[in-house]
Amino acid sequence: MKAVLLLSGGLDSYTAGAIVKADGYELHALTLHYGQVHAREVAAARRVAQALGVSRHLELEVPLSKIGGSALVGDGAIPKDRAIDASGIPSTYVPARNTVFLSLAMAWAETLGAGAIAIGVNALDYSGYPDCRPEYLAAFERLAALATKAGVEGQPLRILAPLLELSKADIIRRGLSLGLDYGLTLSCYDPRPDGRPCGHCDSCQLRARGFSDAGVTDPALG
Question: Which region holds residue 64: left if phi is over 0, alpha if psi is between -120 and 50, else beta?
């Protein structure tokens, strides 16, 4: 079995990939350069891809920064130290990002003859992005069944989101049980010049809370 893994270099996509690999899938990792201000995550994605032993790591340029509309592509400041409320959509939401990413993964999956796309989205400890919800993923899976040759011929693509209903702490515990080295990852939206996480953006806050709740130290801070 083959799966295309959407790999950002953060702990979620790393853990999702490890779970899917443990389930017997051969991984083909896809990382997107989309004009993100935290482009250091691409280097982390390369480290993670090597650690996961993926069959291939494909990097594509998709400059969503030219469209704008998000602090993650330089359109406004990255919010810091805010009270995270998943009922609101933050300025770090990138319009249609997961739809674009999943579409590219779908194209590659069909070319590879892969039966699944793995994605590390999470609907519990997250920042309120609409394209991280279970109903969105179910809708995309239906779209893939209609939009691809494989789907029309009775081999619909599956969207694997093994972290969807896990807390950040449970994600970390699961990853540690699989022997993952989270020191390889970068989750920060606005890393310091030396590459260390800022400790104040939404992603840093969620990560810190997850490690604290899991009762372990984040190796990226060591």
Answer: alpha
